[in-house]
Amino acid sequence: MVDRVTMTVLGLKPLQAKLVRLRPALQRKAIRPAVQAGGTLMAKEARKLAPTGTSPAIWKNGKNKGQVRKRLKRTVATRMKTYGNGNITCVVGSRSREAPHGHLVEGGTKPHIIPGPVKLGSRIRFNVHHPGAKPRRWLSNALKNTVGQQTSLFTSKLAASIEKVAKSA
Questions:
Q1: Quick check: pTM over 0.85?
Q2: Alpha-carbon Rg of the chain, whole angstroms?
């Protein structure tokens, strides 16, 4: 599940007037740090809320049995994207190479069959019946918890960025 948030900050008439006076390339240069600051704030909150758990008891022979897993917490990252139409986006989530299951933890899964062979402990099984998992909503909650702070941070960073870009231009 992918949630998208479009932020509209009201009461920015003076900033918008200053921003419009800049060339489009400079506008993007001024907006990027403000968007990045909001994404970084959300990422910090997501790290706090990322679920941890212990290794399953089925891993009887493994070294990791009973150890706390913190993989999601370590892999939360931000990535900036600028599109051709001028939209600037900050994507917050778990890095897919290190924690490809982040979206499954966020949105949950329905009961399903995992086609084998799958090694469970010392046994090899075919067609494992996964019971499903409840959604944990750690990213959604991080967004909800920080939306007010993101708005004020965006406003202040945008004002500072516009001044900096305007002076350098």
A1: no
A2: 21
